[in-house]
């Protein structure tokens, strides 16, 4: 996906209104408030692998001003800067090279670590730890469960999905502890699973051209979007720690 400008353009156009991104960004904001307090806005925040800047833009609207982000793709950087965001080049394989010596209260990294090997993920998390201020927080969202793999994964270049047990190992190896975790969206997991399995069946039968695939980043219309957002937001209150879903959301803190 790094060189696919069209995918970044799709993300840029719908990121602030698509239900999935809206719920994710609100989950990040709720985690910030839970850890630092509702009224504390003077936090220094880094969004690692920030994409087109949707989260940074959301946090700006929420009252946070000291924000920075990096991405490996120049397309992502260009779209982020169209939002007037403080975003530059950075590599998850060398986190410390971004703004050397700078530290942050919060570091988020959403749907990006799947590009890395196990050892590189540990190195990236260790890099986040070195850039974290005392009482700082790391927020990670990542693709979960191989059963949910489908055309979206192929379109964005994702070659793996994860379970919580893997990140428990990664966190321990990098000197971090998972404070909170949940899979999501739980209530929509069965229909998502059915769609992805149907996609895989079509791929096996060569009814889908895998050379020309689009991701699932599409706006489904206001009504459907509102329903899907409502279902997913409701489940957060009813099931704060869900056992299953196509994504895994975590907050991490330093061991010491």
Give an overview in words.
The longest helix is centred in the N-terminal third of the chain and has 18 residues. The protein contains nine helices and seven strands; from the N terminus they run ααβαβαββαβααβααβ. It is globular. It has a seven-stranded mixed β-sheet, with helices on both faces. The protein is an alpha/beta fold.
**What is the N-to-C order of secondary-structure elements (H for helix, E for strand)?**
HHEHEHEEHEHHEHHE
β-sheet strand percentage? 15-25%
Largest sheet: 7 strands, mixed
Query: How many beta-strand elements?
Result: 7
List the helices and strands and how they pair.
Layout: H1 5-14, H2 19-36, E1 45-48, H3 54-61, E2 67-71, H4 74-82, E3 87-89, E4 104-110, H5 118-130, E5 132-143, H6 151-156, H7 164-173, E6 176-184, H8 189-204, H9 222-238, E7 247-254
Parallel strand pairs: 1-2, 1-4, 2-3, 4-5
Antiparallel strand pairs: 5-7, 6-7
Quick overview of this protein structure:
The chain is α/β, with parallel strands linked by helices and 256 residues long. The chain has helices spanning 5-14, 19-36, 54-61, 74-82, 118-130, 151-156, 164-173, 189-204, 222-238, and strands at 45-48, 67-71, 87-89, 104-110, 132-143, 176-184, 247-254.
List the defining traits of the structure above.
alpha/beta; seven-stranded mixed sheet; 9 helices
């Amino acid at each position: 996906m790094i060189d696919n400008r069209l995918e970044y353009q799709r993300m840029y156009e719908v990121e602030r209104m698509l239900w999935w991104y809206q719920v994710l960004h609100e989950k990040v904001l709720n985690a910030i408030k839970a850890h630092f307090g509702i009224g504390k806005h003077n936090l220094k925040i880094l969004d690692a692998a920030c994409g087109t800047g949707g989260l940074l833009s959301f946090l700006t609207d929420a009252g946070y001003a000291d924000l920075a982000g990096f991405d490996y793709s120049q397309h992502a950087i260009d779209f982020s800067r169209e939002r007037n965001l403080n975003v530059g080049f950075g590599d998850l394989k060398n986190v410390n090279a971004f703004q050397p010596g700078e530290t942050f209260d919060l570091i988020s990294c959403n749907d990006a670590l799947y590009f890395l090997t196990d050892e590189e993920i540990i190195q990236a998390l260790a890099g986040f730890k070195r850039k974290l201020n005392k009482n700082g927080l790391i927020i990670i969202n990542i693709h979960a469960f191989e059963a949910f793999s489908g055309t979206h994964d192929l379109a964005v270049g994702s070659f793996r999905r994860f379970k919580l047990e893997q990140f428990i190992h990664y966190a321990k190896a990098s000197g971090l502890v998972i404070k909170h975790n949940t899979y999501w969206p739980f209530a929509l997991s069965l229909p998502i699973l059915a769609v992805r399995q149907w996609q895989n069946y079509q791929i096996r039968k060569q009814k889908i051209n895998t050379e020309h695939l689009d991701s699932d980043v599409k706006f489904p219309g206001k009504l459907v979007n509102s329903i899907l957002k409502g279902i997913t937001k409701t489940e957060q209150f009813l099931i704060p720690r869900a056992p299953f879903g196509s994504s895994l959301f975590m907050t991490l803190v330093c061991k010491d």
